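All the exercises in this workshop are built on plain-text protein records. A record pairs a protein's sequence with a compact description of its fold. Read left to right, the backbone structure tokens trace the chain's path through space. Once this layout is familiar, the rest of the handout is easier to follow. Here is such a record, shown just as it appears in the course material:
>
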Amino acid sequence: MRINKIEFTKKVPSDRVKHVIDQEKIECSKTSIETMFDGIQEKKPHTLEELYKEYRYAGKTAVNIFECTDFPEGLKVKEGFLVHLKRKLNITSALIGNELKPEITTVPQINLIEDLGEAVLLQWVSGEKKIGYDGYEVVERIVPSFEYMMIRFGDPIFIELRSGFSTHKKYKEALKSLLSTSADNIPNIDWLPVTKVTEAEAEKISEILEAGLLESEVIGEGCIGKLAVSAAPGIDDLKKQEQYKSMVAGREYLAQVFHVDYREVDTGYSTKVKFRINHKGGFEFKSKVSERIIRRILDVFVEVRYRKESDQGNNEAVS
């Protein structure tokens, strides 16, 4: 796998890279993530690939999950879904792992398909026309945008969108078109948001994760505007502060930013994870995270929303 250094530094946190260097006893400069990248690439390129795989589709990202009812019956199994994709996209070569490189338009199209075992990842590409300078000449370019969607097969089927909440509609419409067998047979999908939670659900999630509240936005005085509150240095949980509780008492929450201590038992890696819940809809990680961290945090959302005991596994713990 050829790894783009710019993408690597955007997605992978420096503390994770330092942990790998120390664990693997790689001798290299740790002055910046770029020098660490070069050192691992030179000494242990396979280790660099494995590390990048953990963050390739993650990083600092919005992640919103929908339960999809009325998913087309013949496509509820991964194998049937992949057969449909190959036919729909008229692909004659290998379906998995090959960039399709469609013409970039304002309408999202599939560029890449990956089989992740329990899920299928779709990389969508779309473009926006922008005017700028090329030297002294004014030119019009199409600037591409890449977004990820995961179809998680099971009962029920979950669709995971890694894009801002305000952009969801066009990707939902693009998926419906992709699932259709003809222009007259567009499926009707009921999108039930899993990551849109109530105040009580957000409180339960924070309790399970033992998360501290760092920031919040609540309705302002007389239901006008909003009041934003941030924790002062040294305060790791606003919920434990009497002054804060009196400030927000009786006010409706608009958004909350939490942080949790994350630890992987098998690798020894530990870090702080920061995420934002928007109570009007939307969820995003404010720190760079791996697939394992995303699954750990969002499994708790599913547990709370569906009142199920999630399998928390033996590999990671939040304490």
